[in-house]
Design goal:
elongated, 133 residues, single chain, mainly alpha
Length: 133
Amino acid sequence: MSILRRERRLLQLVVAIACLVPLTIGGISVARGPQWLGHPPVVPADLDSQFRYVSGIFLGLGLAFVTCIPAIERKGARFRLLGLLVVAGGLARLGSWAMVGAPSTGHRLGLAMELVVVPLLMMWQARVARQAR
């Protein structure tokens, strides 16, 4: 197996594993609302609605990333767009931290995924795409 083929396979595997986050968390959040995060049992309907809406987008984002996996070396534009959406969300989360205070550990890990892991995956995908040409 060539080095390019191995690197491509490894990138596909890492992206597939990373997709488990939005697929799992998004799915749970759509189904259960914000209560699963340990919030008070009564959440205003508008907040629940907004939380589930954003969670549905998060779930859809995970599904969209999954569509990049089979031909990841040819999905650069889609991968970059999806990555940009994740980074934009991470910057919004970082703004919340600055304005409201530190989030829980899970959300801090999400921030690391959004502002570190995803940009690194975007660069890796670009590298694999260049090598495949």
